[in-house]
Amino acid sequence: MTEITVPTLGESVTEATVGEWQVSEGDAVKKDDILVELETDKVSVEVRAEEDGVLSKIVAQEGDTVEIGATLAELGAGGGASGSKASDDKPAQKSEAKSDSSNGTSGGGDLIDAKVPVMGESVAEGQVGQWLVQPGEAVEQDQALLEIETDKVAVEVPAPAAGVLEEQLVSEGDTVTPDQVIGKIRAGASASAAPKSEDAPKAAASSSSSGGDAKAMPSANRVASENNLDLSKVEGTGKDGRVTKGDALKAVQSGGAAPAPAAAKSSAPRDTGPREERVKMTRLRQTIARRLKDAQNSAAMLTTYNEADMSAIMSLRKEIQEDFVAKHGVKLGFMSFFVKACVAALKDVPAVNAEIDGTDIIYKNYYDMGVAVGTDRGLVVPVVRDADDLSLAGIEKSIMDLGKRARDGKLGIDDMQGASFTISNGGVYGSLLSSPILNAPQSGILGMHKIQERPIAINGEVKIRPMMYLALSYDHRIVDGKEAVTFLVRVKESLENPQRLLLDI
């Protein structure tokens, strides 16, 4: 007897509500079949069977509140017993995949599942990219089979063992969840001994495109019933075109009715011209677009400006650069000075290092600095942890490592979560002045710009100095104008007198 329990649902999530059971007591189930959906205040999570068997007892009923580790049901042996009620609506694709596992080939051993890895805190799904290996091709252990795009990073699915890829269970564009089986590998087989499964990708493709009946997740059905929503008019973004809870909530927020003909016409894809090309946005780009717009919609965003004379920092870098590189193995750039200057200013003006949570303000007593990096996939913001404890050399090394991994697509979820403040350097692209958009839920972001020589009045005389415009965008709901200006002046003072950073004043 195997207990089906509530899985870990993410940091700070301690309980969930049981949704509709997809199977009944006495039903035979296959490994990875969806048993029930759990709803939390953040995401909906599917609980799947960990092995073949018969669902002998349902412990938690729909609507029950359950804690992490609580027993949901009991699974008994005998998934193929004739006395159990067969679940006719189980996906044929999975059943066939499992039946194959008992049929060995002369060229190899057991079939091993290739699964979607855990993709990070709060990441509940991803989109399948292009397969890098085709059925019948040999793979090495840990070789990348395909890439999955999430709303934060791209994650490679490695081969769990050396052998031959026998089946592809998902196709490019499919939505998948952590621990979902996406392929089968015949362990120890050689490419010539393994049969090529030509039908597998076709079956997966037809499965993903057969969403004409537009099944809805249980949570989406509940949202629909509570809000009198017609789900047949809601476009599903889940696996196989299923309508998710998020789809239903979005439809409710937008009015819950089918769009008027004029609106439908305006939102429909327009025809492309002979000199135009249509390319689908990546999940990362879609998420960037959505979050930037959400930041504008939710925050009372305002920007204040100042300028800094960069003469002192430029002279210092020129004077000590060779010795700095010789000792630390990395160049002394401008970003480390800005990180240090921002940390000092955040200590003086803690509201800029805080965030709003409902009707509360959370003040952060740490300084994890997000550094915006442009990549081919879009803008990402890796985090320099505990920047207040790092030296200039430590900050430069951390930024160099994060920047390289960002451009190589090697950043993990943890590398981009939890920043308390962000610095964006548009100056590297030649930007003279801009208004950066907040990186929610943060309350401040500093924009650096191009260093340009300009005439400046100093003590009644006109001098030519290398100047940089600084821009602080902030959430006016939590940061007052006086605090924002004070913060930016502190940054300016630290940059124009870098000795203040070294002396911690």
Please tell me about this protein's structure.
This protein has 505 residues and is of the alpha+beta class. The chain has 4 domains: 1-90, RNA polymerase II/Efflux pump adaptor protein, barrel-sandwich hybrid domain (OB fold (Dihydrolipoamide Acetyltransferase, E2P), Beta Barrel); 91-209, RNA polymerase II/Efflux pump adaptor protein, barrel-sandwich hybrid domain (OB fold (Dihydrolipoamide Acetyltransferase, E2P), Beta Barrel), CATH 2.40.50.100; 211-259, Irregular (Dihydrolipoamide Transferase), CATH 4.10.320.10; 286-503, Chloramphenicol acetyltransferase-like domain (Chloramphenicol Acetyltransferase), CATH 3.30.559. 26% of the residues lie in helices and 28% in strands. The chain contains 11 helices and 28 strands. It has helices at 92-100, 199-209, 218-227, 245-253, 261-267, 283-298, 311-328, 335-348, 392-407, 481-496, 499-503, and strands spanning 2-5, 15-21, 27-29, 34-39, 44-48, 53-58, 65-67, 71-76, 85-86, 111-115, 126-131, 138-139, 144-149, 154-158, 163-168, 175-176, 181-187, 301-309, 354-357, 360-363, 369-371, 373-375, 378-380, 383-384, 421-425, 444-448, 452-458, 461-475. The strands form 7 sheets. Strands 18, 21, 24, 25, 26, 27 and 28 form a 7-stranded mixed β-sheet that branches. Strands 1-8-6-3-9 form a 5-stranded mixed β-sheet, with no helix packed on it. Strands 5-4-2-7 form a 4-stranded antiparallel β-sheet, with no helix packed on it. Helix 3 (218-227) packs parallel to helix 4, helix 8 crosses helix 9 and helix 8 packs across helix 10 (481-496). The chain is elongated.
